[in-house]
Predict the structure of Endo-1,4-beta-xylanase.
Amino acid sequence: MTDSRYLKRTILKEQIESSHLGESRTLRIYLPPGYNEVLSYPVVYCQDGEEFFNFGRIATYANQLILDENIEPFIIVGVEVNTKIRTQEYAPFGDRFEKYTTCFAEEIIPYIEQKYPVRRTPDQRILAGDSLGGSVSIHLSLLYPELFQQVISLSGAYYKQSQDIIAQAQNLTDLNVYMIVGLQETDFESDTGIYDFVQLNRETRDLLQERGATVQYSEKDGKHLWGFWQKELPAALKYFLPEI
């Protein structure tokens, strides 16, 4: 990761005014090497956008994949969140959950698709998130299956309310989920309690598969930290993005 080519990244900041949230929201947009407005690109939408760029180093990894591993160039959109109200927006029991998911689908997606040459089919949009960001990405795919069918879930926080919603789904055959969880995440303390994320992810994998979803699932040594997730990002991206 010391190659200077990986560090020459084009990252733009945008502000979108959300009528659903009643506030502006910052977006970070990564444009790939050789970006050309006349082309079209797959797009990765990240919850916790600032963390994906700063701690996940997703733009640096993207450059590496595109320049050295012949992965098709893609655009990344990081949606920033106020950590103080993150649970309220990302968890289905949160009082801002409906506003956030509606903003994501009905305001952020159209804004990006009007301004950037991203592809507009569900097989070319990838949602990515860690912890509650992983679970809200699944919820978005359930709420808007016409928009989202591909999800990267890094140690998803699949609390009972999320599992109950997934259990109510009838047919998830179009959904494709890349799930990974760390084996040292068995007693993680969150703002809502202490959870065994390994067990929660195993149960959620089974719920998804029982409803026809495709699930690429793995457990590895790791804690509920970006130090673990960062190293897993390239494989997760390669799972969905083709070589050229």
